[in-house]
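Page 42, continued from yesterday. The earlier attempt failed because a stray header line got pasted into the input along with the sequence. Redoing it now with the clean sequence only.
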Amino acid sequence: MRISRGLAALVFTLLFSNSLFAEYLYKDDVVQRDSFSKEIEKIGSELYEKTGVSLYLVMVRDLDANQTIAGYELELAKELKAPAVILSFVELKKQVQILANPTTLYEEFDKNSILSPNATFIGAVVSSIMFARSFDDVKEFMSSYGGVILPVLAERAKGDDIVNKYAVAMFDGYSEIAEQIADSRGIKLESAAGNSNQITIDIIRIIFYGVLLLFVFKYIRGRFFGSRRNEKDTESAKK
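This time it went through. Structure tokens are written below.
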């Protein structure tokens, strides 16, 4: 995750106001703040002007009964002129999805990486250690990292910080998609968040996950040696 995006989003989402109409913030029932809308509109407008691709952000509280987020995006795609990419967030379900129309647009950004629950390689390693049940699980965890949305949504927050968290996560994801599409075409977006402080946040993440990995290692070692010690105690008792 890039700290410049997160800080920028956090600053402008601290302002309380109603959301302005914006073409690329196609629907917003969640954040509803002018500054957030303006930033999304700025990036979306520049991306369209330079590439012809429309990138839409949709944030809703919930979906109709039996409706999936994938089905919802397919319905939205019928309303929007291609080429278009739709980034959607359903608050109550905590679901995020990306749809590209036409599908060839998927070649211009890394959907799996953007939607990865792991922000860094270290995070993927820790996840594989803690949650993998087979070698295939390990390969799946290790195959994708660099997530800019789900790691933020997973962070704890209370009160107004919950909305700020949503704004940061979706701004990160929206900006990342826009930048990747532009980069694939050799274009620079002046309005996008950029990665000026990526090294700083990577260091912070490495330290965080390094400490977590050390904790996991000590836990596993404790369980292993504890088991061995119990076995020896049992054998000694029998003698």
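Notes: The mean pLDDT is 76.
Reminder to self: strip header lines before submitting.
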